[in-house]
Amino acid sequence: MSAPAEAVVDLDAYRANLARLREVAPTAAQMAVVKADAYGHGAVEIAAAAREAGAEWLGVATLEEARDLRRAGDRGPVLAWLNPADADLAPAVDADVDVAAGSVEQLDAVIASGSAARPRVHLKVDTGMARGGVRGAELTALLEAAATAQRAGRIEIAGIFSHFACADEPASPVNGAQEHAFADAVAELASFGAQAPLRHLANSAAALTRPSTHLDMVRVGIASYGLSPGPAVGTSAELGLTPVMTLRTALALVRRVPAGTGVSYGHTYVTRRETTLGLIPVGYGDGLLRAASNRASALVNGVLVPVAGRVCMDQVVLDLGDTPARRGDEVVLFGPGHRGEPLAEDWAEAASTIGYEVLTRLGGRIARRHAGAIPTITGSGG
Ligand SMILES: *Cc1c(COP(=O)(O)O)cnc(C)c1O
């Protein structure tokens, strides 16, 4: 390994997770969400694996992410759902990328984009998350404007969608309320004489827990990478999912220190007895969470050992105790758990955050290596 640490991405596990999600939502099309560089897993490789596994759609946030998929050779259906104020939509539309519109203003921007192709638009409804999309009178205006623009041949209404705020808490009453609000929006669009061929609402958590939300398509992100959307949904093992990424490095320095040794910035960790410290060359500059200082652990030679003291920008010290270890021995920070290593969720818990953030923050000097059968991009036509 020449980089200080590597993220090994198991494409076989990724495809198996998509197959599992297909089992859970058999009647809906599957959109593999590959935004934020596929949650840190490498969008190009993950997208190709998703197509190979049969994902009909890819979902991204930005137009740039969609462009990168097209540049990598993907030709299948792609939706990009963010609408920045200064976005140049024409290249995306001309590259057959579906775009979203979450207000009349955003719809007007799509219509005015100057694309050669007729834009395929997914109408974004705010059913209760109060993030993208609109509700009430503003929604009525959006749906009516979209129906009118479609009749005039200026857009094609390809879909209508919304996003859950609390799907990772399956018992929350917000979920049912959002589902109802979405059904109302679909009916309201019909009242203007238009249909959206793709109604989509479910993220990973809803795909796993609320079959009534599957509709025409589910948009799966975190579960496809093998993480549970949240503790109330179950562990990844209970859900039949396998974490796709293993973050590993090697000990750069191993040494014995006496009791009472203060470790790392601020001496927030002081050895209680003589012990072995192991240094690893990765830190918050690579996306490790500093909030996991003194709280996370890693696997060294089959033993779980704690992070000792503060996570630094480029380095972390582990307290190896009396575990036999030498410079060059493998250190697994997180992975699928098969060898007893921590899960990304364990790092999340240690840092009071969510697995999504643990994965997407990784970057910097970490090398990414794809394992498992590596597909070539062919796209699925269209
Ligand atoms: C990120 C995102 C998803 C995927 O959510 P997961 O919880 O990772 O499955 C789906 N839809 C939208 C609009 C998103 O922004």
UniProtKB/TrEMBL annotation:
In this chain, where does the modification N6-(pyridoxal phosphate)lysine occur?
K35
User: Which residues are listed for substrate binding in this entry?
Assistant: R131, M313
Which keywords does this Swiss-Prot/TrEMBL entry list? Isomerase, Pyridoxal phosphate
For activity, the cofactor(s) needed are: pyridoxal 5'-phosphate
Listed under catalytic activity are: L-alanine = D-alanine
This protein is called Alanine racemase
A GO MF annotation of the entry reads:
alanine racemase activity
Q: What is its EC number?
A: 5.1.1.1
Q: Which family does it belong to?
A: Belongs to the alanine racemase family.
Supply one GO CC term from the record.
Answer: cytosol
- Identify the pathway: Amino-acid biosynthesis; D-alanine biosynthesis; D-alanine from L-alanine: step 1/1
Q: Which organism is it from?
A: Mumia zhuanghuii
Domain annotation Alanine racemase C-terminal: ranges: 244-371
UniProt cross-references to NCBIfam families, sorted A to Z = alr
Q: Which Pfam families match?
A: Ala_racemase_C (PF00842), Ala_racemase_N (PF01168)
